[in-house]
Design brief:
The structure holds two protein chains of two kinds. Chain A is built from three helices and nine strands. Chain A is of the alpha+beta class. Chain A folds into two domains: 66 residues, no CATH class; 132 residues, Sandwich (Immunoglobulin-like), CATH 2.60.40. In chain A, the strands form two sheets. In chain A, strands 3, 6, 7, 8 and 9 form a five-stranded antiparallel sheet that branches. Chain A has a four-stranded antiparallel sheet with strand order 1-2-5-4, with no helix packed on it. Chain B has nine helices and no strands. The N and C termini of chain B lie far apart (53 Å). The chains are: A alpha+beta, B mainly alpha. At the A-B interface, helix 1, helix 2 and helix 3 of A face helix 1, helix 2, helix 3, helix 4 and helix 5 of B.
């Protein structure tokens, strides 16, 4: 006796066909399939409330231990200006993007992208995000610097066709980000390195600081 | 005060209000517990894995690109933890599998139905993790192929292929009682 299900019975198992849709000679097999699905245990599983306490105890411990990464301590005082700017084309449908990083110092005016944002954040860096996205209606940049809030940093369409830009003051440090096009499509910056987010996707990375080199 | 969205909570946690994370734990602690229990064949192991997943999610929260979809993002973390745990158990060798998902509130069912249920749970553990995952999501969590594809980032045809292989393996394994 064969022990594989007939393709039609598999579709029956998938819920795509009813028993009445099957030829009579497959009914016995379909009933075996029904018994298989009838044995599926869908009972809810309730975990003990203590789990929350255990998780939060560990979360509090890790939140306390977690501090600013050591490697960019002391990167704040430089008066150098380093610029990173690249424009990439990704294809006809989409995008080219780049981030322009302008290091600011407490006493120096913003270079190239004067926005009032930086005045309140002397340890910040202006990062100019550029995305070439012809045909897009809306573009924003979201990342770890704005808690992935896709409404916080919209890009504006510049005079050049399809070129969107935004200048954002970022704290010194490393940030992960991505562009959101038309509110639904995430696009990485092809001009920037990416890191695996650990869950099957990649995020672009920009590291800004006095010691930063062109990325 | 209205219920805060997952996105609002995630942003609050990222802004330093760590205690808000407890609300996410409460929201999703049980929602995915059944998935983990069926994937691992043990409610106790599911508890450990769900706990690990929440801690890992907290540590990686900055990488949650779409805070309003915390649930979907957390599910992927949990799923990866389940697959890793399952591989670890398999590497540990035979004899460690014990189907201990409590057959609660089943006393009213006929005995053979209980036996079939236990046999199926054991047989599920003998599928590949990828086959088991799609079976559990479709037939335990009652998701459509399209919903599963959205969660896992896989195509519907590839999911169907996995599932259909799973059906055959289960039939072979359970041929005496089906």
């Amino acid at each position: 006796m064969t022990t594989v299900f007939h393709p039609l019975v598999k579709r029956f198992l998938d819920g795509e066909l009813r028993l009445a849709d099957l030829p009579p000679e497959l009914h016995a097999e379909a009933r075996a399939a029904e018994r298989l699905l009838g044995a599926v245990d869908r009972t809810a599983v309730t975990l003990p409330a203590a789990l929350e306490a255990r998780v939060m105890a560990e979360v509090r411990r890790r939140a306390t231990v977690s501090t600013t990464p050591r490697w960019w301590h002391g990167l704040i005082a430089s008066r150098e200006i380093r610029v990173r700017y690249r424009l990439w084309t990704l294809g006809p449908a989409l995008a080219a993007a780049a981030a322009l990083v302008l290091l600011l110092t407490p006493s120096r005016s913003p270079v190239g992208a004067a926005t009032p944002v930086a005045a309140t954040a002397p340890e910040s860096v202006f990062v100019r995000f550029v995305l070439f996205a012809p045909g897009a209606h809306r573009v924003s940049v979201a990342g770890t610097f704005n808690q992935w809030d896709a409404t916080a940093a919209p890009l504006a369409l510049t005079g050049a066709a399809g070129v969107w830009t935004a200048t954002v003051a970022l704290p010194i440090g490393q940030h992960q980000y991505a562009f959101l096009v038309d509110g639904r499509r995430w696009v990485n910056d092809p001009a920037a390195p990416t890191v695996d987010d650990g869950f099957g996707r990649r995020n672009s990375v920009v590291a800004v600081g006095a010691g930063a080199r062109a990325l | 005060m209205g219920t805060r969205t997952d996105g609002e909570i995630v942003r609050a946690v990222l802004a330093g209000d760590t205690e808000q994370y407890a609300e996410l734990v409460r929201r999703y602690r049980d929602r995915y517990a059944r998935f983990a229990a069926r994937m691992l064949g043990s409610a106790d192991e599911a508890e450990d894995v769900v706990q690990e997943a929440f801690i890992r999610a907290f540590e990686q929260l900055q990488q949650c690109r779409d805070p309003d979809n915390f649930a979907g993002w957390f599910f992927l973390i949990l799923r990866n933890r389940c697959l890793a745990e399952r591989r670890r158990v398999v590497r540990a060798g035979p004899g460690v599998d014990a189907v201990t998902v409590p057959a609660t509130e089943r006393a009213d069912g006929p005995l053979e139905q209980d036996e079939r249920r236990r046999a199926l749970q054991q047989a599920l553990l003998e599928l590949t993790p990828e086959q088991r995952e799609v079976f559990v999501l479709k037939h335990v969590e009652d998701l459509s192929y399209e919903e599963i594809a959205g969660r896992l980032g896989a195509s519907v045809p590839s999911l169907k292929m996995r599932m259909h292989r799973a059906y055959d393996r289960l039939r072979e394994r359970l041929k005496e009682i089906l």
